[in-house]
Amino acid sequence: MASVLSYESLVHAVAGAVGSMTAMTVFFPLDTARLRLQVDEKRKSKTTHMVLLEIIKEEGLLAPYRGWFPVISSLCCSNFVYFYTFNSLKAVWVKGQHSTTGKDLVVGFVAGVVNVLLTTPLWVVNTRLKLQGAKFRNEDIVPTNYNGVIDAFHQIIRDEGILALWNGTFPSLLLVFNPAIQFMFYEGLKRQLLKKRMKLSSLDVFVIGAIAKAIATTVTYPLQTVQSILRFGHHRLNPENRTLGSLRNILYLLHQRVRRFGIMGLYKGLEAKLLQTVLTAALMFLVYEKLTAATFTVMGLKSARKR
């Protein structure tokens, strides 16, 4: 119990939350472009910069930052839960011993599931707020009128039922495998490089980490698209059996996307997502590592537990 409620887990959680908030704020417009491309299927602009220019021209200079506060709030809560759960579980399981790849994968998966179940309502609300007021090309989208986070929660529960707050949960749970795919490719690329040299440089680590993240994102991107559509919840599509984003509904949305736009329709917004994912992850971990190290130094701890 002491390991679960330790200051060390709290430091990791706060540092992870601050790192993610900083990175997302810097690269927030990329996330805006990605979400528009995923949800508004009939938008003609295909590239990230063209979508952003289009949004600024039609909706104003600050439009790429619409919904910043609810997204940052959700991200803060989400990463706090993830990092706290991950480090607490690891402290309980490892207990001072050296961790293994298998243990890290299991702990990461469990932390991801806990995070999804606890924070999905926040992501549903921030997706709605982020897209509110947007000029859509798709006539299947029903406009919303929320007056903030609390009002959005109230309207969703009143009009759609409390379970609507967990729209997109099933694909979110499937997307917990994203880090596992990333880790698998990262370790494989690292082993290949180590056959040719004694040790890896910081640049080597950054590049193979970026490649691994890009592969994981590309493989799981169709599910991320479905997740965004389910969270938004305002398409006039398949109104039956939408609870929690069932497997039936996921397959229906994937089929509709392919039928209307071809296989590449599943990857609309991928360019923006890759830019955002790689850059945000790099900056997040930079802030996270620096803040964690600085905090442990201030607390007078000689070294933090190896992750």
TrEMBL record:
<dbReference type="InterPro" id="IPR018108">
    <property type="entry name" value="MCP_transmembrane"/>
</dbReference>
<dbReference type="InterPro" id="IPR023395">
    <property type="entry name" value="MCP_dom_sf"/>
</dbReference>
<dbReference type="GO" id="GO:0005347">
    <property type="term" value="F:ATP transmembrane transporter activity"/>
</dbReference>
<feature type="transmembrane region" description="Helical">
    <location>
        <begin position="67"/>
        <end position="85"/>
    </location>
</feature>
<dbReference type="GO" id="GO:0015228">
    <property type="term" value="F:coenzyme A transmembrane transporter activity"/>
</dbReference>
<dbReference type="GO" id="GO:0080122">
    <property type="term" value="F:AMP transmembrane transporter activity"/>
</dbReference>
<dbReference type="InterPro" id="IPR052217">
    <property type="entry name" value="Mito/Peroxisomal_Carrier"/>
</dbReference>
<feature type="repeat" description="Solcar">
    <location>
        <begin position="7"/>
        <end position="92"/>
    </location>
</feature>
<dbReference type="GO" id="GO:0015217">
    <property type="term" value="F:ADP transmembrane transporter activity"/>
</dbReference>
<comment type="similarity">
    <text>Belongs to the mitochondrial carrier (TC 2.A.29) family.</text>
</comment>
<dbReference type="GO" id="GO:0044610">
    <property type="term" value="F:FMN transmembrane transporter activity"/>
</dbReference>
<keyword id="KW-0050">Antiport</keyword>
<feature type="repeat" description="Solcar">
    <location>
        <begin position="200"/>
        <end position="294"/>
    </location>
</feature>
<keyword id="KW-0812">Transmembrane</keyword>
<keyword id="KW-0813">Transport</keyword>
<dbReference type="GO" id="GO:0005778">
    <property type="term" value="C:peroxisomal membrane"/>
</dbReference>
<keyword id="KW-0963">Cytoplasm</keyword>
<comment type="function">
    <text>Peroxisomal transporter for multiple cofactors like coenzyme A (CoA), flavin adenine dinucleotide (FAD), flavin mononucleotide (FMN) and nucleotide adenosine monophosphate (AMP), and to a lesser extent for nicotinamide adenine dinucleotide (NAD(+)), adenosine diphosphate (ADP) and adenosine 3',5'-diphosphate (PAP). May catalyze the transport of free CoA, FAD and NAD(+) from the cytosol into the peroxisomal matrix by a counter-exchange mechanism.</text>
</comment>
<feature type="transmembrane region" description="Helical">
    <location>
        <begin position="200"/>
        <end position="223"/>
    </location>
</feature>
<dbReference type="InterPro" id="IPR002067">
    <property type="entry name" value="MCP"/>
</dbReference>
<dbReference type="GO" id="GO:0015230">
    <property type="term" value="F:FAD transmembrane transporter activity"/>
</dbReference>
<comment type="subunit">
    <text>Interacts (via N- and C-terminus peroxisomal targeting regions) with PEX19; the interaction occurs with the newly synthesized SLC25A17 in the cytosol.</text>
</comment>
<feature type="repeat" description="Solcar">
    <location>
        <begin position="99"/>
        <end position="192"/>
    </location>
</feature>
<feature type="transmembrane region" description="Helical">
    <location>
        <begin position="105"/>
        <end position="125"/>
    </location>
</feature>
<keyword id="KW-0472">Membrane</keyword>
<keyword id="KW-0576">Peroxisome</keyword>
<dbReference type="GO" id="GO:0051724">
    <property type="term" value="F:NAD transmembrane transporter activity"/>
</dbReference>
<feature type="transmembrane region" description="Helical">
    <location>
        <begin position="12"/>
        <end position="30"/>
    </location>
</feature>
<protein>
    <recommendedName>
        <fullName>Peroxisomal membrane protein PMP34</fullName>
    </recommendedName>
</protein>
<dbReference type="Pfam" id="PF00153">
    <property type="entry name" value="Mito_carr"/>
</dbReference>
<keyword id="KW-1133">Transmembrane helix</keyword>
<dbReference type="GO" id="GO:0015297">
    <property type="term" value="F:antiporter activity"/>
</dbReference>
<keyword id="KW-0677">Repeat</keyword>
